[in-house]
Amino acid sequence: MNRLLMVTTIPDTLKAFLLPFARHFRAQGWRVDAMACGISNSPECLETFDHVWDVEWSRNPLDPRNLLVAPSIIQEVVQQAEYNIVHVHTPVAAFVCRYALSNFKYQQRPTIIYTAHGFHFHSGGQPLKNSVFIALEKLAGRWTDYLVVMNREDEQAARRLRLVLPERIRYMPGIGVNLQYYSSDASSNNEVERVRQQLDIAPDISLFVSVAEFIKRKRPQDILKAFACVNHPKAHLAFAGDGPLMEQMQHLASQLGIQHKVSFLGFRKDIPTLMRASVATILASEQEGLPRCVMESMCLGIPVIGTKIRGTQDLLSQDCGLLVKVGDIQELTGAIAWIINHPLEARILGERGKQRMAAYDVRHVIELHQKLYTEAPLALPSFAGI
User: Fold this and answer.
1) How many CA atoms are closer than 13 Å to the CA of 206, on its beta-carbon side?
2) Under CATH, to which class is 189-359 assigned?
3) Could you tell me if 305 and 339 are in contact, meaning their C-beta atoms sit under 8 angstroms apart?
4) Fold of 3-175+362-381
5) For 219-243, how does the pLDDT look when each residue is reduced to its tens digit (9 = 90+)?
6) pTM for the complete prediction?
7) What does the alpha-carbon distance between residue 303 and residue 70 come to, in Å, rounded to a whole number?
């Protein structure tokens, strides 16, 4: 029996992205297990995986538990279960897991695959920070058999820096999107209207939506400042998500005098319906791997305003969305105004983006994983060659 272990820092990553992969390979007769901090408290993970393993680590890369406690747990689990493949995701889990397995003898070691959901170094990053993360990726690359990247900038960087052997780098279009779930047919017009009623906005109001965590790199303040500059009487802005900057952003909305035109919705489970109720979605991030919210909006045919960064550019290039410079409030203001003033062209933009999303279908990405998993056990360990 083929045995696969999926490893992430927290179970939310598994729930958000990887459950379809687990179901697929279990249906193929594989044993599919998962490891994350607190995973035994996740009903979805308990139901989907054959076995789950709790591990003590933190999302904080400087937490000493990450290298003092977690490696011995990982080693014991892998020795006990005899996995063919260990597939790691998210930076902390990926580094610690690869470190833990680095001293395994080749005969005992499973094939180790790392999916980078966006390297912490990038073209817009600070030089010192970039240097540190490049050094860490080079070190961990020595303990990696296959590296999966999901945007072209990361692919080029991985090859240029030789993070792993070039023939062991695989580009995949993200982790996949369920095109049936993010479909205009998945929610009714009545549900869309109900959302607008909940927000207390009239039918002729142009609703803009931002789906993102309130953290520094998402730059929600840029969206608020640009929306205030537009100052259109029939426009409304809604944020779906929570995070440490949420209260600060609510205060900023009041300072800008637009608090009556901005809704802070917190965590939402009806993202497809919320997006369908909007005229466009906005993501002002300074760093992404391949932003899921952009793909979701494109699947629904809702135009996207995004920033000129890796991942987002991959998705919105070739006139599939509107791209603005990171932190450029004037450009962002102009993009919002364009959506309001050109509704027909905006819909055409959304439809063009929708057509692009066929390549990002989760079923296609699962097929790419199937091919990689079939190839991986046949390949010789790559550690010594880097």
Assistant:
1) 22
2) alpha beta
3) yes
4) Rossmann fold (3.40.50)
5) 999 999 999 999 899 999 999 999 9
6) 0.89
7) 43
